[in-house]
Amino acid sequence: MQVPDVASMRLLPVVLLLLCSCTRFCRPHYRKENEKKSELPPASDLLDTKCLAERHTHRSCDKVFCQPWQKCIGGTCLCKLPYQCPKNGTRVCATNGKSFLTYCQLKSFQCLQPDSKFLNSGECTGQEKFDVSLHHEGPDSVGLLRVKLTVLEESMYVCKDGWGMTQANVACLDLGNPLGALDTPDVARPDINIDECLHVSCRGTETSLTECTFTRRAGVQELAGVVCYNDSEAPPAEKAFQCVNGKRIPRGKACDGVNDCGDQSDELCCTRCQGASFHCSSGVCIPQQYRCNGERDCITGDDEANCGGAERPVTSEPNLLPLDMDTERKRIKSLLPTMSCGVKQHMHSRRKRVVGGSQAHVGDFPWQVAIKYGDGISCGGIYIGGCWVVTAAHCVRASRVRQYIIFSSLIDWIKPNTELHFRLVNKVIIHENYNGSTYQNDIALLQLKMPSLKECEMPGSVPACLPWSPYLFQPNHKCIVSGWGREKGNLRVFSLKWGEVHLINNCSQFYPGRYFEKEMLCAGTDDGSIDACKGDSGGPLVCQDVNNVTYLWGIVSWGENCGKPEFPGVYTKVSNYFDWIGRHVGRSLITQYNL
Ligand SMILES: *[C@@H]1O[C@H](CO)[C@@H](O)[C@H](O)[C@H]1NC(C)=O
Ligand SMILES: *[C@@H]1O[C@H](CO)[C@@H](O)[C@H](O)[C@H]1NC(C)=O
Ligand SMILES: *[C@@H]1O[C@H](CO)[C@@H](O)[C@H](O)[C@H]1NC(C)=O
Ligand SMILES: *[C@@H]1O[C@H](CO)[C@@H](O)[C@H](O)[C@H]1NC(C)=O
Ligand SMILES: *[C@@H]1O[C@H](CO)[C@@H](O)[C@H](O)[C@H]1NC(C)=O
């Protein structure tokens, strides 16, 4: 122990006390601790193995939102180009000595060139120094973390309070370890007087600790220890959860809301969550403190639903650094273009319960359109915004483009209502892999002819939102099918009917060899009383999320013997065609959250 100088004399009794209670601070035995952790029950009952096989990570936009400097293409978050960032923001300096107009521009540049990390906000001066190091008392790999922030003269130890794998993973990245941290063990306090430490808080997606939020903590505190990942010290495969990035973590740490893997792969395929974490219905565990924090973290939005006005915009202590990058990240998000869909202009009172299909009223299904061919309504369709309608491929033929008439706000085609509008069709786009004998890829787009170039809208119509992920709705979710199709007994129907059905998990049992899970979904009722039937084809199966926003989840495609429970209706799975639709209609028309 060093001889305390005069200034730190007042700390002496405390330091002695710490030394006396050494049992709590003794040398790390994290090997032993790993053994202890692996005694936890195996987490296999928490994990969805089919989902795990899809190898989701923090870059899977089927499971999580992309960062604002990324865009979701084919289910993966890819780098935006810097010019695709919002212009508003303040200058930041990168470790390559270059300054960027905004944080978003730097992050999208870094996404392409990983070596240029964020250094600090403001211009580069060439003088700033940021450094992360480990202070070792002994020869082993456990160290106390020290950080030199650009705004401080000296480096400081990091406090144990608030320290965890989320922060440790980011610190180990700074220390040059791409797989992040192995553990955050208790470490003996060094024999020096420290009466202040840095409290650090990260989201876990940062690529450098200097993007995290720092505050000073006064008084004698326990300090943060870290062991960076080393394959030979990681738990053996049979006791480990295997992360997608190759890291092995103790099995009991999956589905606890903490991103131990660093690529989040331990939190994305969970049937439920353990510890202080929240289960998104998309199967993702997020930290409990993200619930009702004013930011939508679950793609399904359930973390921000039923907050009862209790959203608590995080009132954190002021950051030591001049610009809080987490706040900046949220601001960039708020500047991204948004689109409106799936919200009815005026809510109608709930109608009587559905038995065999209820009568619809004007405004109930503002995305529903009717396709007229010949002397009747041949199929339904769905307005998705701009000049575009989606329908089933088996409903239309390119050669008949001039013979279709699309009606919106139509209820009864024998006694037409005054609100209805119609459009002619400019172009029919049938999915290139549509197979008329198997009904695979049963989806088509109709581009409507507009009376004038400016007017690419359908009066009275509201576009249905398009789902970008197959995880937005789960089996048993109640959804609504609507159309002018035939009733049981092949009775002709002249007015728009709707009914409630629930999503069914796997229809292979009903249609062996004919049901393709990636491209199709099915829905029905237990007694078969509600079903889509002949003439409903091409029409919508819509589902509402927790905020009552309506998504086009399925397109009526096929089924056998309408209204028999052993033959549920089969629908085209729209989420599988998000990119295909985006390619034809333009992504900005259909992308709700991140272009
Ligand atoms: C940037 O955003 C701030 C805060 O939202 C706003 O006050 C300012 O006017 C914006 N500047 C530009 C150039 O848009
Ligand atoms: C990993 O741990 C082993 C055994 O403890 C050690 O020999 C090796 O040097 C470590 N590797 C790294 C990269 O630290
Ligand atoms: C449709 O699928 C069947 C069965 O797989 C196949 O034999 C046929 O060639 C396919 N037709 C087209 C047009 O792809
Ligand atoms: C769906 O059910 C079929 C037959 O019951 C089965 O072979 C198949 O593995 C199931 N698929 C999934 C993804 O559960
Ligand atoms: C959604 O709609 C239901 C029924 O109309 C209503 O009770 C509920 O409050 C709505 N929820 C939200 C978040 O608007």
Q: In the residues, how many domains can be counted?
A: 3
| Count of individual helical segments | 9
Separation of termini? Answer: 58 Å
Stretches where pLDDT falls below 50 for ≥5 residues?
Answer: 1-39, 349-355
Q: How many strand units? A: 29
What Rg, in angstroms, do the CA atoms define?
Answer: 29 Å
Main β-sheet description? 6 strands, antiparallel, barrel
Characterization of the model:
There is one protein chain. The protein has helices at residues 12-20, 22-25, 30-38, 49-52, 103-112, 165-174, 325-335, 578-585, 587-590; strands at residues 70-73, 76-79, 92-94, 99-100, 118-121, 131-135, 143-148, 156-157, 181-183, 196-201, 213-218, 225-228, 240-242, 248-250, 277-279, 285-287, 358-359, 368-373, 376-385, 388-391, 405-408, 421-430, 444-448, 478-483, 497-504, 520-524, 540-544, 550-558, 569-573. The protein is α+β, with helices and mostly antiparallel strands and 595 residues long. It has 3 domains: 29-334, no CATH class; 366-433 and 442-448, Thrombin, subunit H (Beta Barrel); 478-590, Thrombin, subunit H, CATH 2.40.10. It has a 6-stranded antiparallel beta barrel. Strands 18-19-20-23-22-21 form a 6-stranded antiparallel beta barrel. Strand 15 (277-279) and strand 16 (285-287) form a beta hairpin. It is elongated. The termini are far apart. Residues 1-39 and 349-355 have low confidence and may be disordered. It binds 2-acetamido-2-deoxy-beta-D-glucopyranose (5 copies).
